[in-house]
């Protein structure tokens, strides 16, 4: 069985686009909510390989996406490096003080259960389904480490790098090093491809974007490609706007994830010659469902379907999404 999603990442167009959805495992699925309840909390679920593997496979069993994304979180890396992390019910993540030093030696021990999850998922996955590992990109991860949680304006993180760029560079370089090791371990355990989530790339001015988005993503892609030349890498620098072009030219990922705002015809013309394009249906169309959702999906496929393309959303599925709408979208994509 061929893996269509991997074919697309290797530059091959196909009649029917491979598809998966960011946050395809999660709170919109009743079977996820049940397992999470059983596990205790979200982090207990992440660190339990049996349960995390089950959650990873839930959307595949129900909808048959072309790709399964490892069930874990980008905030495992701060935790592995020695920063405390908890998820309070209904709240976002809560991180402790930024550590003075980063615990590279202890990191691999802490994320070992996640690597075990990759092995378990691999064993239970249909042959035609691509297993995607992932990590957060250094800038996005650093915002959580500095802010102590989610933020709207990243005011503390920006104050940090404008006042003390050398210390911020130390932090970014530390996350970069840890992320290369972490993704390498995922690949060695069976991930067929990996995705870098730079969810807050769009918050930075061009010069800062160059330093804190382009450069660390470039280093991670170069290092992984040197170690694992056959494993494709998808980058998702959300909100990059016109800088998507420069990002793709310099970072050279195999796949480039575009957010909801990027015009698909622009992506086809400017990005697709450089990389496989992945995106970019507005996740809120899935809440509405029906014709509005299918028309939006069709338009995206019309613009991007001639070149290497993976259908996805422009950001993650939201918890209030009816699972039947996801099923309808999957049926539509399979019948194209
Ligand atoms: O059960 C729960 O209530 C926890 C909700 C949840 C889930 C299901 C969180 C908390 N993380 C996850 C899983 C997750 N996170 C996955 C694997 C599942 C899948 O995609 O199917 C992935 C890939 C992530 C990645 C992630 N975590 C990102 C990057 C993608 C994005 O959405 O931009 C980010 C920013 C996070 C941080 C995070 N994790 C969870 C929360 C509430 C947050 C904060 C989000 C914010 O600041 O807005």
Summarize the structure.
The chain has 336 residues and is α/β, with parallel strands linked by helices. It is built from 15 helices and nine strands. The protein has a seven-stranded parallel sheet. Strands 2-3 form a two-stranded antiparallel sheet.
Provide structural commentary:
It is built from 15 helices and nine strands. The model has no long low-confidence stretch (mean pLDDT 97). It has helices spanning 4-9, 30-39, 42-46, 49-63, 76-80, 104-124, 138-147, 155-163, 165-188, 206-227, 243-251, 264-271, 285-288, 290-304, 323-335; strands at residues 67-69, 85-87, 93-95, 130-136, 193-198, 233-237, 255-257, 276-281, 309-313. The protein has a single domain, classed as Alpha-Beta Barrel (TIM Barrel), CATH 3.20.20.210. It has a seven-stranded parallel β-sheet with strand order 1-4-5-6-7-8-9. Helices cover 52% and strands 12% of the residues. The relative contact order is 0.14. The two termini are 20 Å apart. With 336 residues, it is of the alpha/beta class. A hairpin with a 5-residue loop joins β2 and β3 (93-95). α10 (206-227) packs parallel to α11 (243-251). The longest helix has 24 residues, at 165-188. Coproporphyrinogen I binds at residues 22-27, 36, 42, 69, 71-75, 92-93, 134, 150, 197, 199, 316. Residues 22-27, 36, 42, 69, 71-75, 92-93, 134, 150, 197, 199, 316 line the site of coproporphyrinogen I.
- The helical percent reads 40-55%
Radius of gyration: 19 Å
Instruction: Look up the CATH topology.
Output: TIM Barrel
Bound molecules: coproporphyrinogen I
* Biggest sheet descriptor: 7 strands, parallel
* Shape assignment: globular
Helix count equals 15
CATH class: Alpha Beta
Distance between the termini: 20 Å
User: What's the β-strand tally?
Assistant: 9
- Written as H for each helix and E for each strand, in order along the chain, the element string is HHHHEHEEHEHHHEHEHEHEHHEH
Uncertain runs: none
CATH architecture, please? Alpha-Beta Barrel
Domains counted in the coordinates: how many? 1
The residue-averaged pLDDT reads 97
**Side-by-side strand order of the widest sheet:** 1-4-5-6-7-8-9
Q: What portion of residues belong to β-strands?
A: 5-15%
Structural class by secondary-structure content: alpha/beta
């Amino acid at each position: 069985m061929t893996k269509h999603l991997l074919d697309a990442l290797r530059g091959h167009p196909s009649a029917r686009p491979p598809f998966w959805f960011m946050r395809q495992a999660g709170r919109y699925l009743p079977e996820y909510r049940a397992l999470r309840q059983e596990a205790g909390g979200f982090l207990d679920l992440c660190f339990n390989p049996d349960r995390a593997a089950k959650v990873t496979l839930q959307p595949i069993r129900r909808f048959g996406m072309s790709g399964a994304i490892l069930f874990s979180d980008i905030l495992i890396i701060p935790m592995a490096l020695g920063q405390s992390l908890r998820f309070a019910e209904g709240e976002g993540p809560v991180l402790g003080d930024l550590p003075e030093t980063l615990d590279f030696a202890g990191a691999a021990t802490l994320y070992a259960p996640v690597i075990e999850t990759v092995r378990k998922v691999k064993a239970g996955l249909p042959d035609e389904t691509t297993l995607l590992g992932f990590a957060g990109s250094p800038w996005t991860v650093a915002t959580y480490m500095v802010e102590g949680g989610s933020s709207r304006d990243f005011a503390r993180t920006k104050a940090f790098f404008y006042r003390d760029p050398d210390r911020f560079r130390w932090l970014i370089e530390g996350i970069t090093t840890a992320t290369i090791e972490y993704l390498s371990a995922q690949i060695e355990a069976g991930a067929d491809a990996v995705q870098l989530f730079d969810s807050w790339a769009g918050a930075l001015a061009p010069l800062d974007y160059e330093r804190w988005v382009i450069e660390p993503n470039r280093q991670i892609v170069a290092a992984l490609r040197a170690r694992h030349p056959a494993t494709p890498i998808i980058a998702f620098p959300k909100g990059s706007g016109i800088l998507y072009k420069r990002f793709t030219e310099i970072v050279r990922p195999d796949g480039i994830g575009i957010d909801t705002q990027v015009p698909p015809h622009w992506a086809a013309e400017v990005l697709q010659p450089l990389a496989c394009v992945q995106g970019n249906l507005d996740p809120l169309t899935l809440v509405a469902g029906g014709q509005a959702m299918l028309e939006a999906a069709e338009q995206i496929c019309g613009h991007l379907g001639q070149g290497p393309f993976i259908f996805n959303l422009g950001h993650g599925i939201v918890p209030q999404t009816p699972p039947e709408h996801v099923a309808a979208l999957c049926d539509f994509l399979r019948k194209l």
